[in-house]
# Entry
Amino acid sequence: EAAVTQSPRNKVAVTGGKVTLSCNQTNNHNNMYWYRQDTGHGLRLIHYSYGAGSTEKGDIPDGYKASRPSQENFSLILELATPSQTSVYFCASGDLGGRQNTLYFGAGTRLSVL
Amino acid sequence: AQSVTQPDARVTVSEGASLQLRCKYSYSATPYLFWYVQYPRQGLQLLLKYYSGDPVVQGVNSFEAEFSKSNSSFHLQKASVHWSDSAVYFCALSQYTNTGKLTFGDGTVLTVKP
# Structure
């Protein structure tokens, strides 16, 4: 079973502060993703990566940076956090070879920006 | 641009009753389609997926979904629900060329009454 671990699980930050959300996967998947989920809405893609050293912008990248230093780790960085970034953030990994095409999600990080 | 619409924000059914959760999509070609389930304070888990072929696909826990190209729909069904099926259900699509980048609907909250 694929394993995706996010840390921290909960975070309270101040407006203007820097926040780093971490994600680790142990399945050697090439692709990793960061989504945010807001109440009453589906997930929206922030950034994604095809492998170590690569990051790509998703649908809502403004205000976020991403870093993929290794196959296993993918971080989401909020340089200057704002209250509008209060949300639940999900990391996912996936191996898209053949017909696999399945994403495995972490349990989420609940971020509150005050 | 692609989109996914789940017209029912909340659905309540009695235990043992049949279930249908609706999903409509908009995409110019034939997409990859998915249903994910999210239990409280957990990440999303894949229920089933459709690529091509038989329009009825079977998933975990006796869920199935039927793809209709003419109706641009991918409705989720279950013959007899259990209280443990209470969760949020998301329909999602990916482009045929598939990058793993999913477009999600807003989700349907399912409550199963004992």
Chain A touches chain B at residues 4, 31, 33, 40-45, 48, 58, 90, 92, 94, 96, 99, 101-103, 105-108 (CB under 8 Å). The two ends of chain A are 37 Å apart (CA to CA). The mean pLDDT of chain A is 92.
